[in-house]
Specification:
Blueprint (H helix, E strand, L loop, with lengths): L28 E3 L3 E6 L2 E7 L5 H6 L5 E3 L2
Length: 70
Amino acid sequence: MMEHVTKEGEHKIVRDCSLPLTGKRCVHRIITDFAVIDIDDDGLVLRETAPGVSVDEVRAATGAEMRLAL
């Protein structure tokens, strides 16, 4: 569980990581205060939004493209 954005409102979930990685492709699900997002071979998949949070709000707060779960 993590906050979706920094205190300054910057993206925490980004397309490319600029920090050293301790494990590559070891995370398959991200749970934040905004949403539940899965990671698969094709990228990010928005599974669920938090109560009162819209899909558009999650997309705006995320620094990478994501698709909606079917």
